[in-house]
Amino acid sequence: MTMKQVGVVGSGVGGLAFAIRMACLGHQVQVFEANAFPGGKLSEFQINGFRFDAGPSLFTLPHLVDELFTLANKDPRDYFNYTRLPEVCRYFWEDQTRLCTLENSADTAHEIAKILGENEKNVHDFILGLQEKYQIISELFLENSLHQTSTWFSKKAWNGYLNIPRLGMFSTMHQAHKNRFKNPKTVQLFDRYATYNGSDPYQTPATLSIIPHLEYNIGAFFPQGGMIAITQSLHQLAQDLGVQFHFNEKVNRILCENKQAVGLETAKGKYSFDILASNMDIRPSYQQLLPDQIQPKRLLQQEKSSSGIIFYWGMNKQWDELGVHNIFFSERYQEEFKALFTDKTLSDDPTVYLHISSKVAPEDAPAGGENWFILINAPANQGQQNWDELLRLTRERVIQKISRALGEDISSYIVAEDYLDPRRIEDRTSSSGGALYGNASNNRFAAFLRHPNYRSAIKNLYWIGGSVHPGGGIPLCLSSAKIASKLFQENA
To answer: Regarding beta strands 5-9 and 28-32, do their DSSP bridges make them parallel or antiparallel, or are they unpaired?
Structure first.
């Protein structure tokens, strides 16, 4: 294969992975990043001795990171290390019910049976059954382009067709869980995984009920050095492979001639490339970088995933009741999602996710303290005029909810603070509306409606990241780069 000049817009995890894959194929790669650092949402910052991962806080499917080093004939352990957490998550309800899910699926089933009164075998069978469903769906939807005819006539596809009745495409996630379990708390526990791709369990198809498989059958992991270590290790690998990075150099335009991408333009000038890839959200990619090209209007107008309000609190106290991952559930779960996706606002009783990396990495907080990363699901920014008020109210409600669970007012222990809201997320990561996962998956055809990783309408331009196929989150962004690289090789 003739060596190509490859330009990548954005150094999010998808952009890094695509750059690595193209470099491994022997091509010369340059990555352009508007920020001064790589990683996109997968970045970090410090306040008064507290270190925070700014974005994703849960690490699953570590083999997807490892395989990039293996592909480059490098030992992953020379760059990147991680451990499996003995606990997956601690759950808190307003009536003081508490539950801890564990790394062993049988132990998790036992705890759910003991605390929530479910049939232990039924729970364990459900968890184990997710593995087979995940394998079917993964082979068809997550590892291949859905926009190639060959995908639909492969043996894997026919296996998927035969199993459609089992995959839950014709019911919602909530309906499937309600039919399976008797305690509403169990239903709520498994419903929450819809938020892993920014969707509503009362609308999204039951197919997405496979998501807990990643935690309960494979594991929840913690990278040595925090989530930022994923970015740092991939950036280092890319550099070792000769990838050139242009930080603080925002791309203003992808240059096209005769429906073919030929280069890009920044404030510093024009660059010619044989191959281009955009790791930028599809909406700003088309509107800002490709304004003169035919716009896929239906794709761009689809419902956006949820965004989030994130509080970063440095606490000068430690709590034994809390783990690395914690959930404080809303008492009115369906109303919470109605507020998000119908009313485009926040519930007055939001579910709160609390991540504390200092539980396993004490260096992330001063002695005797904890670094609290708090995420509340929020609607994407669609011109709401009351974000400042929503931010203030949500902060009060979060403090009240966690204080009730812990039996004391936590507000006096906050000694360092910062935040993100949909406006800031949109501004800092070029995510349309600050949506964390691109488009929502609130209908049974959502998987088929994502932007493809390659469109013949603009040749030599590939699409990667959370706003395109197969979806948002670290594992799927890595998969998007793998699929795009495979398509490139097929097109070459």
So the answer is: parallel
